[in-house]
Amino acid sequence: MDRPEHVEAQLVGGPSDAPATATIGRHDEIDRIKIIHLGGYEHFEREAGTDTTAPVYRWTMRTKIAE
């Protein structure tokens, strides 16, 4: 069976109006992702032990976009 190129990741925490999911590339080693949101980036880190087909990422911080 072929593995999908992308998976839907669950995003936990962060601002209430931030997305709850993100489509990410199918890389088993992605530990951190950042999502552009309202003039900045929301940073998420993968929770240990989460399945590679349905990974869970927890919010860690927000940074502003450099101008």
Description:
With 67 residues, the chain is an all-beta fold. It has one domain. The protein has no helices and five strands. It has strands at residues 6-12, 21-25, 32-37, 40-46, 56-64. A five-stranded mixed beta sheet has the order 2-1-5-4-3, with no helix packed on it. A hairpin with an 8-residue loop joins β1 and β2 (21-25). The chain starts with 5 loop residues before the first strand and ends with a strand. InterPro entries: DUF5988 (IPR046030). Residues 1-22 are annotated as: Disordered. Pfam families: DUF5988 (PF19450).
Describe what is shown at a glance.
This protein is mainly beta. It contains no helices and 5 strands.
Q: Characteristics of this structure?
A:
single chain, 67 residues, mainly beta, five-stranded mixed sheet, 5 strands, elongated
The major sheet is characterized as: 5 strands, mixed
Report the end-to-end length measured between terminal Cα atoms: 45 Å
SS summary, helix count: 0
Structural class comes to mainly beta
Question: What string gives the helices and strands in order?
Answer: EEEEE
Structural domain tally: 1
For the secondary structure, the number of strands is 5
Overall average pLDDT: 87
General form? elongated
* Percent range for β-strand residues: over 45%
Helix proportion range? under 10%
Any idea what the radius of gyration is?
12 Å
Parts with pLDDT < 50 across at least 5 consecutive residues: none
Kindly report the spatial arrangement of strands forming the biggest sheet.
2-1-5-4-3
